[in-house]
């Protein structure tokens, strides 16, 4: 695990975004998880990506660096102040403002307004209580072959502890189970950072 994190090197832009997130008390994807986001965006030649949870732009930069040069990242967050920082980070990373569509609002209010089957990748880094609803929305938003990624699949290390019965852990378990048992997903759990649930839409 430590090697995987060290292997994914971050430049000064990502380091800045990460330190700003820490100042605001936000959790960002780990470097290893970020490298998985970039890898999957690149593997799918992603042109249209939805990110739920902008933060200070850490995961957004990783995604944009994997996407096609003409790709657009639609990123949603309730905190306008965080998005103001992220907007600056995206520019500092060398991305034109036209490469991002930054929407302030609750994901569950915004997602219904996005087009069916129009996206290559959906990344969820939101409140655990919204995991299930976001996964359901992703099924509608993604094209066949599109990828869903959910950050936090390890439930802060409690996922395999049968004694852990708190609401967040139960919610993560339920989301993992629902995706695994669905005929519509091909899933895997990637043990990077906080854990990524990855699933390809059939």
From TrEMBL:
SUPFAM superfamilies (alphabetical): S-adenosyl-L-methionine-dependent methyltransferases (SSF53335)
Keyword Ligase tagged: no
InterPro entries xrefs: Cation-dep_OMT, SAM-dependent_MTases_sf, SAM_O-MeTrfase
Protein name: O-methyltransferase
UniProt source species: Paractinoplanes hotanensis
Pfam family of the protein (one): Methyltransf_3
Keywords assigned by UniProt, alphabetized: Methyltransferase, S-adenosyl-L-methionine, Transferase
Record-linked CDD domains: AdoMet_MTases
């Amino acid at each position: 695990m430590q090697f995987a994190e060290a292997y994914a090197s971050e430049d000064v832009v990502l380091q800045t975004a990460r330190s700003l997130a820490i100042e605001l008390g936000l959790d960002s994807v780990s470097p290893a998880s970020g490298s998985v986001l970039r890898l999957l965006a690149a593997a799918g030649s992603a042109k249209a990506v939805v990110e739920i949870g902008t933060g200070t732009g850490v995961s957004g930069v990783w995604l944009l660096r994997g996407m096609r040069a003409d790709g657009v990242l639609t990123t949603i967050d309730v905190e306008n102040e965080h998005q103001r920082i992220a907007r600056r980070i995206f520019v500092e990373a060398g991305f034109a403002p036209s490469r991002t569509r930054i929407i302030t609002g609750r994901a569950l209010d915004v997602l219904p307004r996005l087009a069916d089957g129009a996206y290559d990748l959906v990344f969820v880094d939101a409140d655990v209580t919204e995991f299930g609803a976001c996964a359901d929305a992703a099924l509608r938003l993604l094209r066949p072959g599109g990828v869903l990624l959910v950050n936090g699949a390890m439930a802060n290390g409690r996922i395999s502890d049968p004694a852990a019965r708190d609401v967040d852990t139960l919610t993560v378990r339920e989301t993992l189970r629902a995706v695994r048992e669905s005929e519509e997903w091909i899933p895997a759990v990637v043990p990077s950072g906080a854990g990524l649930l990855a699933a390809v839409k059939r």
